Amino acid sequence: MQTVKSSLTLAAIPAVLLLMNSCASLAHAPEEKYILIAHNTKIAYWQSAAQGIAHAAAEMKVKSEFDGPDTHDPQGEHDAFKRAVAMKPSGILVSVTDASVLTPDINAAIEQNIPVITIDSDAPESKRLFFVGTDNYNAGLIGGRMMAKLLNGRGNVVIYTIPNQSNLKDRLQGYQSAFADHTDVKVMQVVDMNGNGDVAFDSAKKLLDSKAKVDGFACLEAVSCGAVADVVSRANMAGKIAMVAMDTDPLTVDWINKGVISATIAQKPYTMAYYGTKLLDDIHHHPPKPLAGEWNKNIFSPIPTFVDTGAFLVDKTNVGGLAKSPMAGGDQ
Question: 250-263: per-residue pLDDT in tens?
Answer without folding.
Answer: 999 999 999 999 99
